[in-house]
Amino acid sequence: MSYPHDPNQPPNYGAAPGYGQQPYGAYAPGPEPDNNLVWAILTTVLCCLPLGIVAIVKSTSVSKLWAAGDFAGAQKAADDAKKWAMWGAIIGIVGSILIVVVYFVFAALIIGASATTSTY
After folding, report:
1. pTM of the model
2. Is the dihedral of CA 11, 13, 19, 24 positive or negative?
3. What digits encode the pLDDT tens for the residues 38-87?
4. Residue 78: exposed, middle, or buried by beta-carbon count in 10 A (0-12, 13-18, 19+)?
């Protein structure tokens, strides 16, 4: 007798065929990659808003791609999220240091200029 489904399993009425299953021949190569969402959010809030937003968008797509069976795409999105978060943090830190240096240079120029001017 030919069964349309496994006779040891109850029939899956109402579910789409293949719902929740991996595509034929696809298997998860390991655990889902880290989406780096925490780093993306910290970069957005503390360092560099535009690059942090890109990192958040990339990191939120990791789980969606993994669930769809696009394991290579999920890994690439995770790597991209990490890259954008790192660049945002580096730019934010370097920018902050430059702002502090420029502030002290201008403060020194102003103090030096006011010390050499005569009030007579």
Report:
1. 0.67
2. positive
3. 999 999 999 889 999 999 999 999 999 999 989 999 999 999 999 999 99
4. buried
